[in-house]
Amino acid sequence: xxxxVCGAYVNxxxxxxxxxxxxxxxxxxxxxxxxxxxxxxxxxxxARFNDARAVLLTGGPAYQIGIYPDIYPIDRxxxxxxxxxxxLGWKAxxxxxxxxxxxxxxxxxxxxxxxxxxxxxxxxxxxTKTVLAANGVDNVLMTGCPAWYDLAHFEKTYQxxxxxxxxxxxxxxxxxxxxxxxxxxxxxxxxxxxxxxxxHHGFLPTRDKAGFKRARGFLKFAAAAGLKxxxxxxxxxxxxxxxxxxxxxxxHVGYRVHAHLLCLSQRKASILINEDSRGEGQAKALNAxxxxxxxxxxxxxxxxxxxxxxxxxxxxxxxxxxxxxxTYPVMKxxxxxI
Length: 338
Prior knowledge:
It comes from Roseobacter denitrificans (strain ATCC 33942 / OCh 114). The protein has helices spanning 12-28, 43-51, 67-71, 105-115, 126-134, 179-189, 209-227, 239-247, 257-265, 277-285, 300-311, 315-336, and strands spanning 2-6, 33-37, 54-58, 83-86, 121-123, 140-142, 166-170, 194-199, 231-234, 251-254, 269-272. It is of the alpha/beta class.
């Protein structure tokens, strides 16, 4: 048995990570997989941890300043099995340098301790590997995110489309200064294309003051987008709906890392706009241009990236997909250590 400790709640992208991670484990390691909610670890779960072949920390941007105990509140002294980070990433503002990032003392001790007991861990991008090196950990493989690997589409080739029939704009978790102008420009650029805006956390991401404020922004956007022919798709916590939406799309442009990775894994065109280190890390991992959101609201660089996609007939997409294929043996190398 393998235990995966996950935290998939409202964000449908987190559900994609977990599903793809388990698919890889079943293919290469173990069929018997138990999922434990990282926010609800019980005494009974510790017994399961100790019966397991390994305990895998599975999720998205877990390498934050307080990974322990904020993200993974695991008492490692109670766990005799190996605790292995699996495809984790780093999250920070774009102006923070990966080689200067430091965990809080108890979080750093946790990260160092679990790595001292394993052959290697897995990170999803080079920035995360640099973060760990800066914090005294170097037994790490850059495997890419588990979401890179859709085994059903792995051998499929990318086919460039001159005129996408359906375009999805993935919305940021909160309204960005460039969002309305981007939507308006995409409306003009693709007048005959079916256009959908997706909300990975749904219209109401949290039932608190911050969540209601974000919901008001989303509703304002939905009203403006609706006047230009867009429809909205609320995906909060629903992996099936997420997969169906992007499976029916020809192109994605937007802010959600796992919309981008889902499309690339299924050999579809995608242009990611980085809000923070999560997107920047994936751009570096996939040998793709890094396209950051602009706090002033400028979208000229985004427009140029979209036009370059069509001028080059999807050259950057081809590069990213080939990088995924070339990195898969590294993912299998990591899985073999479990």
